Amino acid sequence: MEIEILKPTDLKSYKELIDECFGTSNDLEKYQKYNENQAYKIFVVKEGTTIIGSATQYALDLFTFDFQPCLMLFNVAVRMDYREKQIAKYLLSHIIENARKEGYRSILLTCLDTAYPAHKLYESVGFTKENSLKYAMVL
């Protein structure tokens, strides 16, 4: 297994992974824009030429007193037939190590309250559950 940054030639395979894991996704053009935006990094795990897992990070500065560089993590996904093989843990550990090397101070993510396997995964690599309430507005 290899971890790499998503290549433009792999966008279709990436979309197929996201569709499989989340039921639906954006169109290819939107993923291409994300992939071209330097604030985003889409990491993929490959077995041969097949994308079997991915996670997307988005870099931002938190507007705190010292403008801490922070990463937002989302779309952590592993193909159904590759689950329970430590792939997501391997990928997250890679992202966490890269974040430390690049000087980030924290990584944030959100997760559905009922996604218990994901909770266990995130806690196993060092994330802690925070007491917060998420608000959203559809525009």
How would you sum up this structure, described in words?
- This protein is an alpha+beta fold and 139 residues long.
- The chain has one domain (2-124): 3-Layer(aba) Sandwich (Aminopeptidase).
- The protein has helices spanning 11-22, 28-36, 87-101, 116-124; strands spanning 2-5, 40-47, 50-61, 69-78, 106-109.
- It starts with a strand and ends in a 15-residue tail after the last helix.
How would you summarize the topology of this molecule?
Layout: E1 2-5, H1 11-22, H2 28-36, E2 40-47, E3 50-61, E4 69-78, H3 87-101, E5 106-109, H4 116-124
Parallel strand pairs: 4-5
Antiparallel strand pairs: 1-2, 2-3, 3-4
Alpha-carbon Rg, integer: 15 Å
List low-confidence stretches: none
Shape: globular
How far apart the termini lie comes to 40 Å
Helix share, percent: 25-40%
CATH class: Alpha Beta
Name given to the CATH homologous superfamily? Gcn5-related N-acetyltransferase (GNAT)
- Main sheet? 5 strands, mixed
Q: β content, as a range? A: 25-35%
- Supply the helix-strand structural class: alpha+beta
Number of domains: 1
Order of helices and strands: EHHEEEHEH
What is the architecture at the second tier of CATH?
3-Layer(aba) Sandwich
CATH-derived topology: Aminopeptidase
- What is the overall pLDDT average? 90
Number of helices: 4
Number of strands: 5
Please list the strands of the largest sheet in the order they lie side by side.
Answer: 1-2-3-4-5
Keywords: Transferase
Domain N-acetyltransferase: 1-139
Organism: Enterococcus avium (Streptococcus avium)
GO molecular function: N-acetyltransferase activity
